Inverse folding.
């Protein structure tokens, strides 16, 4: 999805699918430093030392109280929970989350194989995280060498190469 930024240029807008891949290890980044009240906390970014006050959203408090997530994901963000009636994941402090969480988008482009299964993701600036060995090969042979300085043109060329190899690219 594209949106216009303040300078008139186009930027990618990330839409979260609540897949749960983002925050499964962010407990290494976020530490609860102080419980201010029952559902209000001061958290500390373990890498930068920045501190934020976050509050668990009222509608998600019962979900927050369920700590089962840490059985399977011991390094998960302390506010990350899986829905009880669905396979969606929730940030229980979404409305008050820190700036770094607000700015995060886990992928710019999602790449699917011919069966519609995720083959890889283009992350940040021109970095591929791939599960599919064929996609990795195409990336190494044809995409990595692209020297186009304009991001929009690079994106178009990358998408054309990946699509011509039989993959689907979603933004």
């Amino acid at each position: 999805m594209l949106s216009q930024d303040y300078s008139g240029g186009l930027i990618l807008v990330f839409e979260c699918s609540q897949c749960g891949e983002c925050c499964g290890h962010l407990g290494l980044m976020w530490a609860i430093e102080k419980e201010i009240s029952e559902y209000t906390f001061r958290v500390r970014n373990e890498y930068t030392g920045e501190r934020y006050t976050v509050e668990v959203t009222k509608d998600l408090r019962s979900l927050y109280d369920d700590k089962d997530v840490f059985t399977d994901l011991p390094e998960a963000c302390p506010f990350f929970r899986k829905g009880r009636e669905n396979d969606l994941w929730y940030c229980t402090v979404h409305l008050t989350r820190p700036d770094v969480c607000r700015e995060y988008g886990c992928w710019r482009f999602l790449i699917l194989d011919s069966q519609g299964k995720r083959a890889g993701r283009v992350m940040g600036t021109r970095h591929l995280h791939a599960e599919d060995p064929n996609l990795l090969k195409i990336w190494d042979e044809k995409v990595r060498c692209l020297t186009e300085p304009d991001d929009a043109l690079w994106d178009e060329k990358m998408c054309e190469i990946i699509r011509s190899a039989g993959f689907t690219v979603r933004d």
Residues 63 and 121 are 29 Å apart (CA to CA). The chain is about 25% helix and 30% strand.
